[in-house]
Amino acid sequence: MSGFSAGAIGLGRIDVTRLCRIFIAVAEHRSFGLAAEDLGLSQPSVSQSIRRFESQIGLEVFRRARDGAVLTDEGRRLLPLARVVVRDAESFELAASQLASDRDSISIGIGVSAPAWVAAAAARAASSLATRVDVGRAADSALIEKVEIGELSAAIVEFPSPLGDLVKGVGHIAERRLAIPEGRSSASSKRTPWYDISGLELAITPRYLAPAAWDQLTDRLTDIAGTRTIIEVDTPEHLLPAVAGRTCFAVVDATVTALPGTTLVPLPAAFSAQYRVLVHPDRQLAADGTDLRSALDRGLRRATPKA
Fold this sequence. Notes:
Pfam families: HTH_1 (PF00126). By secondary structure, the chain is α/β, with parallel strands linked by helices. The chain folds into three domains: about 15-100, Arc Repressor Mutant, subunit A (Orthogonal Bundle), CATH 1.10.10; about 105-170 and about 280-305, D-Maltodextrin-Binding Protein, domain 2; about 175-270, D-Maltodextrin-Binding Protein, domain 2 (3-Layer(aba) Sandwich). It is built from nine helices and 13 strands. It has helices at about 15-30, 30-40, 45-55, 75-105, 115-125, 140-150, 210-225, 240-245, 290-305; strands spanning about 60-65, 70, 105-110, 130-140, 155-160, 165-170, 170-175, 175-180, 200-205, 230, 250-255, 260-265, 275-280. The strands form three sheets. Strands 3, 4, 5, 6, 7 and 13 form a six-stranded mixed beta sheet that branches. Helix 1 crosses helix 2, helix 1 (about 15-30) crosses helix 4 (about 75-105) and helix 2 (about 30-40) crosses helix 3. The longest helix is centred in the first third of the chain and has 31 residues, at about 75-105. Residues about 1-15 have low confidence and may be disordered.
C-alpha cells in the first residue's frame, strides 16, 4: 500500500478525510447502524459512502456478516493509515482555526508594578483593533521574553529595562507619591518631608519584577533619605497596608487613594515612573494593518493622569 494517494485513486483530499472518518467509525462499532448514529448520518448514507470508498480504492475493506461489519485483511492494513489521515486533518483544522482567531485577537502583557490606568488604557486602545483583547500581568523580564517568541502581541514595562531586539515606544510618565504612616507629616503639600520617614523601613515590590527600575528607585531614595531596611511585599496593592502598620514608608502611584492609617505626600519628578510599549519588529501590525505600538502609545498618552 506504499503507493496509496488521493490523486492516484481519484479521491479529493476533502473526500478522503470524510470517507476515512466513516471507515474508522464502522470499524470501531463493527456496525453500519451504530456508526451512522455516532456520526449523525443515516445508515444508507454510511453504507453508500463505504461502497464508494471501496469502489474508488479498488479494495474491499469490510466483509458483511451476521454479527456486523468485519474488517478484511486489506481493511485492517488501511485502518492505521486512515487514523493518520483523520488525525492530521484535525491538527490542520485546529491550527487554521487558531491562526484565524489570532488574527482577530491582541494579547498584551503589563508589568506587575504598572498602575491600573496603564492596563486599562492599553486594553481600550487595542479594542479598536481586534474583537478580542487579552491583558495579563507578569514580571517585566517574562513579558519581554514572551514578546520575543510571539506569545504576546505587545508588552508595557517599566524603564529602564533591557529590550533585546524589540521596538520600544515613547516614554509615558506616571507620577508617584510618598506614602507614610498617618500623623507623621507636618510639612506643606509642596514639599516632601523626608525627615518624617526617620526610622521607617522601605516597603517595596520584589526586585525581580523590574530589576533595573527597582535599582534606580532604591538608589535615589538612598541618596536623599539614607540607607533603609527593605521589606518586600508581593504586589503594589500591599504597599499601603504595610505603611498603615506604622513601621514602613513606600513610593506609590499618584492615582492611588490613601487608606486609613496612611498619608500621601508629593515626590519630586525624578521619582516618577516611566513605562514604554514594546513590540517585536516583525509583528508590529495588527490584522487591519494598523501599527500596534503607535495605537497603544496614543491610548496611553490620552489616559496619562494630569498633574
